[in-house]
Amino acid sequence: MTHWPEQLVSSREAEFDTVDMTINIGPQHPATHGVFRMVLRVDGELVTDCEPYIGYLHRGLEKLTENHDYRQAMGWWDRTDYLAGLCCEGAYCMAVEKLAGMQVPERAEYIRVIMMELSRISSHFMFLGAFGADVGSFGTSFAYAWRERERIYDLFEEVAGDRMFPTYFRPGGITMELPENFEARCRQLLGQIRQGIEDLDGLLTGNEIFIERCCNLSPLDTERAIALGITGPILRATGLAWDIRKAEPYSIYDRLTFDIPVGRQGDIFDRFFVRLSEMYQSCRIIEQCLADMPKKGLILDPKLPKTLRIDKKECYVRNEGTKGEYGVYALARGGTKPYRMKLRSPSFCNLSALREMVVGNYVADAVLILGSLDIVLGEVDK
Amino acid sequence: MTQDSPAKSQLPAAGLADEIAKALPGIPVQAVETTTDLDLTVEVANLKPFVQGLRDRLAFDLLRNIVGIDFEADGMALKYQFYSFKDNRALQLTVTTGSGHPHVPSLVDLYPAADWHEREAAEMLGFVFDGHPNLKNLLLEEDLHIHPLLKEHPLQVGEVFQGIESGPVGFPS
User: Fold this and answer.
1) Judged by CB atoms within 8 Å, which residues 102-131 of B form the interface with A?
2) pLDDT tens over chain B, length 173 residues
3) Out of B1, B4, B35, whose CB is closest to A99?
4) Number of H helices, E strands in chain A
5) Domains observed in chain B
6) For residue B139, which residues of chain A lie inside 8 Å, CB to CB?
């Protein structure tokens, strides 16, 4: 039996000791879904620390808005969540309408809801495609998702003249009347969308590797999610049926019938599945709007003043954006410009919880967890 | 069409001010109605005990947002938006401070969600959040110590938009 001298044992241990390594991911990296950078500290394959860096797309949205007319500033706001620009426009317009005490004509409200829900579907398609690619479907899911997204954008182009940033809404209504065959076109599109969702559902949810990879990864409980400020599909995935469209209804959502899909344990698969189910609900909402919409009527009150002047008032308007609670704080103190506008962007708040979700998981899963947050950097960086 | 359904916007706020006064006695509060929510103003020194009371006794468990505002000669203010899932109601809390680099207690230990909001308010307006573990720049460059959302900060920096003759382009030192 050999007795190793004490000194030798400790030196050999030092020889085999592991050293934490630092890995930088981004800002130019396909897995970060935009210009986002995270520095991971890894022990072998396990992540022991994670520091996110944001701000690469900071455009000074709030400062610009403070220095422009209420209507001029609108164009920047649909460049925040650029995958669902119309939802952002909607939130901004609602904030201005709240301050000015404007009424939106009923027909305009229905058209707004249709367009916002179409944006939500297109944004979720983008998530499904990109997330499938993160998991490893090598672009097949991306191609499927892109096909449907293009169809939705074609409709946007017909209606508003632009694909991603239509600037279609205005404080007090919308700019243009719908094209003549809109209802038939929209119903046809809904059929195609449903087929597209089913295709992606079959491709991803029907795939055993996908399920194995996503189930039980990074589960989150409701209480912790709330403490971290997480809202939207990620919060609903933890099992809490909270949707601002139901809890604090805005626009005409209190007249519509739809369900809130929830998950069970808040893992990656639940987040994916909640979004998938939400798309069917959005289709339902659009169908109801098409049926109930007044066929004629005003879309923008022609008697509105050319320049808005708003006295001392403040509001905090919140919408159910595609990623969570999209809040706009607005303060007016007289004059033609807002005194302060602040965006509470859901991606920003969800991303701030990234560190807690990633630590303790594998490096390969860190990319997946980031993908499951469905961040949009335009919204994170303002 | 109004933006909120009328049943939601008015009713809870009216009772809320009384309920808070009852649940958190001893802290002077000024209540005002904004267009959307009830707004309460407290002293900076009372901020932390008040917020703790809101969270523990009145179930305001979500910190939605923190807004910093520069009122120029009238000092600065911070607005906190809270939400209670249990009672489905919202609340806004205001703290007014002086100008310069006002010190405000950090809420990170009560609400982890406050972390990035406070970092943003610190870099954009120069607030100092006492007790925040990591108060470095979030959206701006790490070594850029400007506060762009102060009203005195110009929208156009230097001679960027003046044309070729105007000289070098850059950030103010």
Assistant:
1) 111-113, 115-116, 124
2) 333 443 444 445 568 887 887 877 877 888 788 888 888 888 898 899 899 988 888 889 999 999 999 998 889 999 999 999 888 888 999 999 988 889 999 999 999 999 999 999 999 998 999 999 988 888 888 888 888 888 888 777 554 444 444 444 444 44
3) B35
4) 16, 10
5) 29-152 (3.30.460.80)
6) 54-55, 58, 381-382
